[in-house]
Structures are given as C-alpha cells and as structure tokens.
Design goal:
The longest helix is centred in the middle third of the chain and has 20 residues. Helix content is 24%, strand content 21%. It has a single domain, classed as Alkaline Phosphatase, subunit A (3-Layer(aba) Sandwich), CATH 3.40.720. By secondary structure, it is α/β, with parallel strands linked by helices. The chain contains ten helices and 16 strands. The N terminus is likely disordered. The strands form three sheets. Strands 6-5-4-3-7-1-8-9-2-10 form a ten-stranded mixed beta sheet, sandwiched between helices. A four-stranded antiparallel beta sheet has the order 13-14-15-16, covered by helices on one side. A two-stranded antiparallel ribbon has the order 11-12. The N and C termini lie close together (9 Å). The chain is globular. A hairpin with a 2-residue loop joins strand 11 and strand 12. Helix 5 packs parallel to helix 10 and helix 6 runs parallel beside helix 7.
Amino acid sequence: MKNIKHVLRLSIVLITINISSCSDNSASNLPNDEISSPESPNILFIIADDVGKDAINGFTEGNIKPNTPNIDAIRFNGLSFNNFWVYPTCSPTRASIITGKYGYRTGVKNAGDELALSEITLQQHIQDQTSNNYTSAIVGKWHLSGNGLGINPESFGIDYYAGLIRGVAENYYEWQFFENGTNNLENSYITEKFTDVSVDWINEQSKPWFLWLAYNAPHTPFHIPPNSMHNQGNLPNYVDGLDPTPYYMAAIEAMDYQIGRLLDNIPVDERDNTVIIFIGDNGTPNQVTQSPYSSSTVKNTLYQGGINTPMFISGSGITRTGFDDHIINSTDLFATIAEIAGSSGNEIHDSKSFKTLFTTNNTAIRNHQYSEINNGVIEAWTISNGTYKLIVNSNGDEQMYNLLQDPYENNYLINSNLTAL
C-alpha cells in the first residue's frame, strides 16, 4: 500500500523544485520589435485595497455584499478568475506584479518593504519592448518605498505618478498628495481625487496608454464617504465598538462610483479599445471578515481568504465570459499586460502570460502557484498545484489541504488518517 502522505508531499516538493529552476531571463534578452499599430489597446489596471472574495459580488463567499454596478459590469462582460493568488499584504502583491518576480527575489515580502531601484518595472519593460509606443501612469497608492516620502515612483521608468506614497491615509479627507516630486496637503476625498487625476491624465494622452490605478479604498481607517457615493444610509461617525461592516461596504461602493465616473469620462471609441483589469490586492481585513472565512484566515495569512482574491478582466480582445478556473499568480500580470501592450515574450522571471485565456479555455498556464510572507513574526510560504496546497512555516509547522474537497482549509491532511489511492 502506498503511503499517501509521502506521495502528496513528494508531489509538492517536485513542484517546489520547479520554482528554483524558473527562468529568470532579463528583459534585455527579449526581442525589441517596434509595435506601432493604431489598434494597440489601452490598459486600465485597477487595484482595490483589502478586497477579498467575501467583499465583492460574483463569489459565494460572504453574505453581505456592496452595491457595485460598475465593477459588476466589468465582471459580466468578461472573465472572473476563481484561482487568482496574490500575497497576504499589499506591498508584496504590488511588487510581484510590477516586477514579475516572487518576493524572495525582490526582498518585498511584507507591507512596507522597499523595492530596489535596480528592478525593471512593468512600465519600463513595456517601453523597452514597444519602442515607447505606450505612455504609462500610476495614480493612487504606491507603498513600494517603505513609509518614507523621499522616492519618486517616476524613478522606476513610469511616465507619470500622482497619489499616496505611503501605505495608509490616516484621514480620507486630509492626506498628503504626491505629484511632480512634492507632497502637499489635500482635502478632497481621496478616492475622488485619484479619479480626477486619472480622468485628466487620460484626456491628455495622444497614444496608447497604460494606467495603473491603485485605490486605497476600502483600507482602514473606517470612515463615511460622501453620501452621494454609497448606499449604506446615514452612518454616524465611526468609533471603536461600532460594526465596521457598513463603513467598509460604503468605501467599496464609493470606489465603484468613482470607477463608473472614470469610465464615463473616457470617449466611447477609446473605451471600446481598452482592456480593463480589476483585482483585490489581498484578502479582507479581519475586522470585517465574513463566513466561510474566519478572522484568522484572511488578510495577513497564507490561507485562501488571505491570498485567493477577485480578478475580473473585460474589454478589447476578451471574448470569453464567465468563470475561469486556471491557476494564476499575481506575478503573471506582468507578462500578460506586457503581451497586451505588444511584447513578443510571454514568459519572464516568475511571470507567465495568460492572455490566451481571453479567447480560449484550452491552454494550461502554469502547474503551480506560490505565495509567501515574512512580517518579522511569521515567515512562511505556500505552494499549490490547484488541488493540493502546502503551507510551511519557518518554525517547522506544515499544513496540507485538498482545495477541491476542502476549499476553506478545515481538514489538515498531514494530521489525518489517509487511505490508499
């Protein structure tokens, strides 16, 4: 009789070996063919801060959902990804997307870690691959340079940056707005300000554009957005002890309202030639967790509630609709967005393009997913082949789950009685 425990663990080990041998080709090794087609699509990449599956429509997790007609439209008109993995906190997820590398390669494994200026960003890669056919901007939350204010994201090869350098705005109505290398006190509602800047920037462009729009909603602090932007009723000012859920939902609804305003301000022909990608950067905060997740299996953890987040893609070139079950890593957005923009390579570093899934369901993208965390207290990593998931802590603790039979990780396979295949 086979020892199933050892068979399962061996399969994960073999997958782990693949990570160590992943190609780490630099951008300079790829062909540099000029792409000048007028059909080059615009790319709108929207990151929602702290939004898990239980906090958004389209997934069965969670009973309380926000009213989000504009995000719903992105979902209805395109693909919803069931198995999209990110990192447990914001900075590592953003670093993995902008570099196409796992955190152990960049050193960005936790919120507030700093991305080295030597890294080649997605925006720079697109410039190099398309002979500057695209213009790029990041608007909103940066949080890839620690908590300091001394780094201008434009130093990373981004044409334009404006927004919030640090990870958290202590007040959504009074915060430090960074633009043109300087910080100034801003009194506009932060979600609205990010949208205003995005609308203005898009309207100034004369060639294909790539906008990375990083809303910090609905990240804490819990607050009341302008009443016209949400449907949660007349909320009192939030104080500890109140239920934070309606405030959290109001912030998501305000973000959705602003996404709608942004899309309405893009000319129809230009919008029709735009690929729209919407993701959550990590799971829901523990204060507003909903079943089947618990407060110990969401943001800041490697459980599914912390790293399996929403991703919706629609727009130009996306002909499939509904749910896609392929396993996808946040790193894969690097190669995918680059290929949308005209890059001739579909794999770089730890990133594999899944652009083929926009039109067909018959392509295998990767055979494993990977995520990790090192916050000074917990150092751990996880890997999955889509069926089995292994979590390993540096203290020696190991957990294994069958995600097909146990999607919310309640049954420890390593500790249970196993039967033969």
